[in-house]
Design the sequence.
């Protein structure tokens, strides 16, 4: 055991300290705290928190009985205002150190957050755990059964007991739209008659059930086909509404717009046409003045560039890995404005650096606290040529 003083928080939300010239990452530790840890060497040096010797004023008692075991919410011990300040520091410092973009190179807008800090999650991915559902544990790959989760909206929390004892299931995804709930059951093998019978049984309380076999076979949908938990949706409905409005306002209305990684049309519906939206699956319902192009984003973009397509406005919401070609794409289309929605600060920083080199000046950054009680955050950054 050794004692360390925590300097800051990493982009993954861990406390960061120094020991004999090496960086130590300590889950559950806060800046300014003196902590006793057990060192665990590996690709990175980690410290297993054994005792907080001197607490930060930001520390609080977690509001969940499973906080020490469950890995679902990593920042329950940190107050919400301090969480938002920490997220702002993480994103801005990552842009500075990875992207070479200084804090005075853009206007930092106030962070947007919702009214609910708990009971806000309308979407969740849970694993089969000890006869019920749960999440992976903190600091381990062990599974923790969760029969009541205060982070979930009441409609999702209420169905957890009904989903106990599922057979042949590895993962369950839940989605609430108002009072209605849909689930998707991700199976270990092909769909069996017993799985279908269970889906029909669950429809007595749920709006939809989707049976998802391993890759190679299509899902089977029971109930409302418009409410599908196997299709991505933002977890925080209130903050997502504000994010969509801000992105549409930042993109503006001048000229043709191209939206990449459009998903099911979360942003598309709010954009001023004409809009070309690109996504592997595309939207289920057609939208006026929207041209949907279904296919791999990079391959579709290469085709559009070959056609010498021109777009004044570019909006993208890429996966966690980012969009490494975005600067080349934006230049090729002649875009004058780029609006980038990011869920990973490092990927945003790398792509922002490329955009800056290509002549796109970062104009503004705004964070959206989509996931209170965790280190995750959505960022909206605008660039102009």
Sequence:
């Amino acid at each position: 055991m050794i004692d360390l003083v925590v300097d800051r928080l990493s982009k993954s939300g861990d406390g960061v300290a120094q020991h004999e010239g090496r960086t130590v990452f300590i889950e559950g530790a806060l800046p300014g705290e003196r902590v006793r840890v057990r060192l665990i060497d590996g690709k990175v040096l980690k410290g297993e928190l054994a005792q907080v010797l001197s607490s930060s004023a930001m520390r609080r008692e977690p509001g969940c009985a499973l906080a020490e075991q469950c890995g679902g919410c990593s920042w329950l011990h940190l107050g919400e205002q301090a969480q938002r300040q920490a997220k702002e520091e993480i994103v801005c410092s990552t842009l500075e150190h990875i992207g070479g973009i200084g804090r005075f190179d853009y206007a930092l807008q106030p962070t947007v957050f919702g009214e609910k800090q708990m009971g806000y999650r309308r979407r969740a991915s849970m694993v089969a755990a000890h006869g019920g559902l749960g999440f992976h544990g903190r600091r381990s790959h062990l599974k923790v059964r969760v029969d009541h989760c205060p982070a979930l909206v009441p409609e999702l929390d209420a169905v957890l007991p009904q989903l106990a004892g599922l057979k042949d299931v590895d993962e369950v995804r839940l989605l609430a739209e108002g009072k209605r709930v849909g689930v998707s059951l991700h199976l270990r093998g092909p769909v069996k008659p017993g799985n279908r019978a269970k889906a029909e049984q669950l429809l007595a309380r749920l709006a939809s059930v989707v049976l998802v076999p391993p890759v190679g076979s299509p899902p089977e949908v029971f109930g409302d086909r418009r409410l599908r938990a196997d299709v991505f949706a933002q977890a925080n409905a209130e903050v997502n509404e504000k994010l969509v409005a801000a992105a549409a306002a930042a993109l503006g209305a001048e000229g043709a717009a191209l939206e990449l990684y459009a998903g099911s049309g979360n942003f598309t519906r709010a954009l001023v046409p004409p809009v070309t939206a690109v996504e592997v699956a595309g939207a289920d319902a057609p939208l006026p003045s929207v041209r949907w192009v279904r296919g791999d984003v990079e391959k579709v973009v290469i085709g559009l560039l070959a056609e010498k397509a021109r777009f004044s406005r570019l909006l993208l919401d890429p996966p966690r890995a980012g969009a490494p070609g975005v600067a080349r794409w934006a230049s090729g289309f002649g875009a004058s404005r780029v609006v980038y929605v990011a869920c990973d600060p490092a990927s945003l920083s790398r792509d922002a650096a490329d955009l800056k080199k290509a002549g796109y000046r970062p104009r503004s950054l705004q964070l959206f606290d989509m996931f209170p009680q965790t280190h995750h955050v959505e960022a909206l950054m605008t660039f102009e040529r």
Observations:
- The chain is about 20% helix and 30% strand.
- The two ends are 53 Å apart (CA to CA).
